[in-house]
Amino acid sequence: MSAFTAPRGSNGFQDAVAQVIQANYEHSLFLIVEGRYYRLRTSRVLRASGRSPGIIAQPMRACVIALDDPWRQRDGGTARTRLLVQALADLGNNTSVAYVSDRSGDEPSIPDVTFRSVTTVPLGERRWTKPLKKYKQQLLPLPTMRGGMIAALGRHIAELAPDVIVVSQLRAAPYSAFAPTAALWLDQADVWSLFLRREIEERSGLARATAAAQLRYIRAAEIEWTRRASLISTAGYGDGKYLESIANKPVEWLPTAVAPLEVPRRAGDEPTAGFLANFAFWPNRDAFELLCEQWAPALRELGWKTIVAGIGSERLSSASNIEILGQVNDLADFYSRVDIALAPIRLGGGVKVKIIEALMYGRPVIASSYALQGFPSDLADSISTVTDIAPDFSSIIERALGSQEPLALARKYFSPEAWEQKIERMLGVLG
Q1: What does each of the 431 residues of the chain score in pLDDT, given as a tens digit?
Q2: CB–CB of 261/332 below 8 Å?
Q3: Of all helices (H) and strands (E), which one includes residue 293?
Q4: d(CA 215, CA 47)
């Protein structure tokens, strides 16, 4: 497949079709007119008669595949899926979503988007396997590729007959077999092999050996699917460079977009630092332990209060020096309570969306060095960091509160406008 961009103007479509006919294309291609994507197919019946080939134009069919419900949880990964769906629809594509949901018939309402859901969840999320999940993760930290395959979801994809399949998890890539003529867009919110490499460093004995075995399998899968993919994008800047090295093809850095919002600080509160995360994800629970043991006590010595919020935070063991707010429905409410956002991350992969959110909501960030690995160097260098153990906040707080550079760079990289422009450019070179 290839893409042809028509000139803008009232005759753009007709002129483009005429050029396609003159070029006598025999394969499918995409035509872009006024920002809207069409898939063109030549009519072999007309070609056989000796006349010019007939051209059939229709909007490009793009199907986003999700192995969870992007509209039920509001964490970094699902935010990215929702943004992909919205951008594809806004660009005029015939957009669909094939996803897993336990809310049968309760589909979101988005204009011009078709939804196909199944209630069968991936193997590791089923009721009878959940009690075993903790023990499985001790041996294999990440989900398995095979465990993500659901026959009913594959049937939906086949019926939708997409031109492009978009997946944000490596283990969803094999669903492309249900639409063998579709181009595969492999969007990586996290690069699993890089995540595992860090996880292995924290393990020993049998758990280390089995995690290393999974790493070898994941690396092989990443090489296979990046080389099959027509488009590759990553949330993390460094992740993109890594995938370029194994795929031998360009990888687009597509950082998750967040709309900027000015949030006034609530009056009357003492100086407060906050950590917002999805605590169903175990690297964030590890970060909470570091916060309790090292960061919060150091902040309290300087007269600072620490608060924690997010999915699953209400189930965390409370500490005397931390206030737990539970899940928040309004991010602005959380950021109105804090002067500085914290990112005490030691594990995990990809880019930390909560850092992006904090900066786009006008809050400076103090992070671990590891938390910044997914960001471009100029932004990472502008964000204040402290050590994991025995952190010294005394001079860092003043620096973080006084610097506007991270906020300006965040608006440059993570705006919704930049996100949609990148997606439009990527689709324009599809092929």
Answers
A1: 444 444 444 444 445 444 443 443 333 444 444 444 444 443 333 333 343 444 444 678 999 999 888 887 665 568 889 999 999 999 889 999 999 987 655 677 888 899 999 988 776 666 666 677 777 888 888 888 888 889 999 999 999 999 999 998 899 999 999 999 999 999 998 899 988 888 898 899 999 999 999 999 999 999 999 999 999 999 888 899 999 999 999 999 998 898 889 899 988 789 999 999 988 888 899 999 999 999 999 999 999 999 999 988 988 987 777 999 998 888 899 999 999 999 999 987 666 888 999 999 999 999 999 999 888 899 999 999 999 999 999 989 999 999 999 999 999 999 999 899 999 888 886 64
A2: yes
A3: none
A4: 51
Evaluate whether 227 touches 247 at the Cβ level (below 8 Å): yes
Distance in angstroms (rounded) separating the CA atoms of residues 47 and 54: 8
Q: What is the DSSP letter of 323?
A: E
Measure the CA–CA gap between 167 and 304, rounded to whole angstroms.
42
Residue 134 CB burial class (10 angstroms; 0-12, 13-18, ≥19): exposed
Helix/strand number for the chain, H first, E second = 16, 17
Distances (CA, A) of 111 to 73, 93, 106: 21, 12, 15
Tokens of 136: 């499985």
Pairing of strands 272-276, 305-309: parallel
Contact 226, 220 (CB under 8 A): no
3-state SS class at 96: strand
User: Which helix (H) or strand (E) segment is 64 a member of?
Assistant: strand 61-66
